[in-house]
Amino acid sequence: MDLQSLAYALTQVAHNFGAVAVVAAPLFARWPRRADETVRRRLAWLVLAGWMVQGVSGAGFGAISYAYYGAFPDIHGIAVVALLLKMACAASGFVLALLVLRRARAVSAPRADAVWGALLLLGATALTAAAFLRWYS
Ligand code: HEM
Fold it and tell me: CB 3.0 to 4.6 Å from 11: which of 43, 46, 60, 74, for a disulfide?
């Protein structure tokens, strides 16, 4: 069995499910109707875990390349911008999800909606950047 392909495939499995979590959970928190506080709290944990998985598995792609080729993938231009954007989204999404978990009870419903909207935007932006990273690499 080709161990390198297996490592990439398993990392991609984690990365794909992480992507689902960071996009779907914020969507479900707001749509088709505002989820209640208990549900939102569970969704916030899911989003937090999702952003962590994205960061770790994203770094995993780089680590596998380094382990097999002694170098990180050689990317330029739009691919670099897309990767940096994904990393910025992951860092911001992680912090925002933490804030939701710590401060949710202290904020008004409209503000909470806005924060969930921001989380959705970060997830959608990272998912869009993923396509550019893939095809400009
Ligand atoms: C620290 C954050 C992240 C890093 C370092 C990272 C890194 C990577 C790398 C190196 C790849 C492989 C690119 C290729 O096939 O050429 C990849 C693929 C992918 N990433 Fe990320 N990523 C991060 C966050 C995210 C996030 C937040 C999402 C979605 C919300 C995401 C979605 C995807 C998807 C869907 C692919 C597969 C693209 C394809 O092959 O069509 N990534 N990522």
Answer: 60
For the stretch 89-128, pLDDT in tens is 999 999 999 999 999 888 899 999 999 999 999 999 999 9
Q: State pTM to two decimals.
A: 0.94
Q: Is 127 in the pocket of ligand 1 (CB under 6 A)?
A: yes
How far from chain centre, in Å, is Cα 7? 20
Domain that holds residue 56: 3-136
**CB of 26 closer than 6 angstroms to any ligand 1 atom:** no
Four-CA torsion 126, 132, 135, 137, nearest 10 degrees: -90
- Structural domain total, the chain: 1
CA–CA separation, 23 vs 27, rounded Å?
6
